[in-house]
Amino acid sequence: MISLLFLAFVTTLPLVKPSVASKTSETAEFHIEASHFQFEPNRIEVREGQRVRLVLHSLDGVHGFAIPEFGVSLRIPEGGVPVEIEFIADNAGVFPFGCSEYCGVGHADMTGEIVVLGASRADETSSTSELVEEADFNIINIPTTLQMGRHRFAFRVTHRFARPLGQGSFVQLLEDFLGLDGGAQIGLELRYGLFRNTQIGVYRTSDRTIQFFGRQRLLEQGTDGPIGLDLSLGIEGKDNFQEDYSPQLGVVLSRRLGSRFALYASPSFVGNTDLLSPDSSDEEDDYTVVLGLGARVLITDTVTIVAELSPRMAGFDGRLGDKSNKFHASFGVEKLLRGHVFQLNFSNEIGTTPAQIARGQQGPEDWFLGFNISRKF
Ligand SMILES: [Cu+2]
Questions:
Q1: What is the pTM of this model?
Q2: Which residues contact 295 (CB under 8 A, 6 or more apart)?
């Protein structure tokens, strides 16, 4: 500890700004933006014993910033003038920070946390400022528990090539350029942070389905216990939300294990899934309970392997008769690049909305190429 302090002391001695690269790599630097009523980012991750430099500025009025655990407390002036503070994260754990200057009605919401990873885990940890396994709001199709800042936007494109990868010979597939010539199911999604823990959005797929959805944080891993828990609500309708409405109600459970692995379970009820029965007088089976299961494994600082399965637990079981009632499965690899998440994925169906996944689709066992791109604003 003494030697660490000494090292930290020595590395900060030359206060001339352009510091040597090897020295800056010792210090974890974060730029934090304060505004009514949030910090962005509101979660930072460092290693135990690491020197941390925070550069804070306000987007509007006066705010404060305090991490009681490390004796950090300072005032952030209005007008965007940056203020800096340095400290050593000499204790492992998850510690809250918050605004220390009363700034209005949402003042109490201005909180966040600093994750200090224990020395035993330090070597397997990246110095990235976010927990990258929650880089996006969806694993592939099913939701994660990633939260949005209040009044922030996110945009997402989903694209599923309609040509099965296994159809015809490999040469034919190449001739069709891996399915790029065969049409696609394309989805566009806009998401908005209504409150700090509440997000809403709208998603439209090119078969003219429109879904409205919302997600509410109930529990946050670390702060509230060992898991993250969100409530998820939605309704989708076909023909531009004109018919065949499917209400959706579910929860999303997440569990991060270390800094590179996360597991998800998302049981949900999807109504009006059996559109094929000629007369829906038998309403008892006109719903499906889907258990969405997902995993993310961080391979490098910016590359994640993702996978999900959506087995049906109750209700309408996919297609009628002898047709396949396979459940949705998908896997992919995603790359975080300059604020965008690019994901290349393979799915056994081209459906992407909750009702499309619950209903399933007819057809032989096959796989479809697709990609997702998302961007936060
Ligand atoms: Cu405040």
A1: 0.65
A2: 139, 261, 262, 263, 264, 306, 307, 308
